[in-house]
Amino acid sequence: MFVFSFLESFGKYLQLMGRTFRRPDSWRMFFKQYLREMAQLGVDSIPIVLLISFFIGAVICIQIKLNIQSAWMPHWVSGYVTREIMLLEFSSSIMCLILSGKVGSNIASEIGTMRTSQQIDALDVMGVNSANYLILPKIAGLVTMIPILVIFSTACGILGAYATAWIGRIITASDLTAGMQHDFVSWFFWMGIIKSLFFAFIIASVSSFFGYTVNGGSISVGKASTNAVVSSSMLILFSDLFLTNLLS
Amino acid sequence: MIEVSHVTKQFEGKTVLKDISTIFPDGKTNLIIGRSGAGKTVLLKTIVGLLRPTEGDVLYDGRSFVNMDKYELAMMRREMGMIFQSAALFDSLSVIENVMFPLDMFSDFTYARREKRAMECLSRVNLADAAHLRPDEISGGMQKRVAIARAIALEPRYLFCDEPNSGLDPQTSLVIDELISGITHDLNITTIINTHDMNSVLGIGEHILFISDGHNEWEGTKHEVMDSGNHTLDDFIFASDLLKKLHEDALRP
Known about the structure:
Chain A has 248 residues and is mainly α. Chain A has helices at 2-20, 27-42, 46-68, 77-116, 119-126, 130-166, 173-181, 186-212, 218-247. Chain B has helices at residues 40-48, 70-77, 95-106, 111-124, 140-152, 170-187, 198-204, 231-237, 241-251, and strands at 2-11, 14-24, 29-33, 55-60, 63-64, 80-83, 158-162, 190-194, 207-212, 215-220.
């Protein structure tokens, strides 16, 4: 039963994506929406990304320094591990998991409310491809902004690690710098960016699907919002496993 | 002219519309009336193409709506304007942006010309002063008027209204009815209004289709509706004590 239900939903998702990835009815309106979505989904997420990344960067550094590092380990271990965790997993995967909560619920509830208040019907009656008009700018906007968020997240995490040296005096800045510069593989940076592009697509498209297919009133919108967050989080975790294997 | 030809609509085996046929002529306010659950909204949604009929066809000036390809359908939709029960204004846009929306989407006009046309439409519904407000800053009646302005922005040939007076006081309802009727006559368009408001029926009902239990029960004009001799229609019309009393008084010698 679950398999049939999943296949039915997946089929509907593919159909919706088929309607979404069409030539926009009006490029002028597409770019207007695209800029709006970049601001709403990307720029508005910068504060939460910076805040969380700063503290996680600091906490990773403290944990490694106080609980893992020992006399027989090199002095640069804390900085090295902090950099690798931020680059490889936190700034791409975990940050996207966090964003699936903020951005995913935002997308699902916005589109779901438009469905229940007949705004999507209004677009359809006008002859506008509502899926294309509403969903494509969201996907394009988030996919455009996510690399910037990943870079901000990594930078802020490293800044958080340095804060433990400058403010907390837990580690020396020179040890941290030695770790940050040790055996740097630039591909890891690009790996994070590539993974985040997939995750951004998952967040925007899956959340839009749940919002677009809302049927009912406010309870359905709430349920769609929850389903959007849960489903996109699960998909991010599965695809992270797959992508990490593929790209490593 | 819109012709509904033997339209049947089923949902999961349940027949909601049963072989409905009628013609909605140009330049007249056509009303679809009936009790809640009679199938009015399903019929209107089938006519505008939001639902596909299980059987039958809808013909717009002889053009089969059901058999149109995607391009023809998209072109056809640009000749339609619709006012929804909830007004369905885009809440992220201001009043004037809502009215400009169809122009932004489908016209090559300059911004100044689009803005001028939107202001003309807003003036037509006496809302030029509210142009820069947001939908949540205006009353329900004003929202309906904005929806009318948006619906006529592209000068449609067909106008559809789904319970335009729902949730409005009688005075505001009258304003909305007069606006829709005036626009219909001025532009000589085909207008179909889905309502159960008796004031609208008696005020602007030039052609009335009464639906009961999913089928075409009665057709006529506002002058005939009070003395139709159809018991189901009479039960619907005289459900209000006031109308029942007025009718009894009129029949009394």
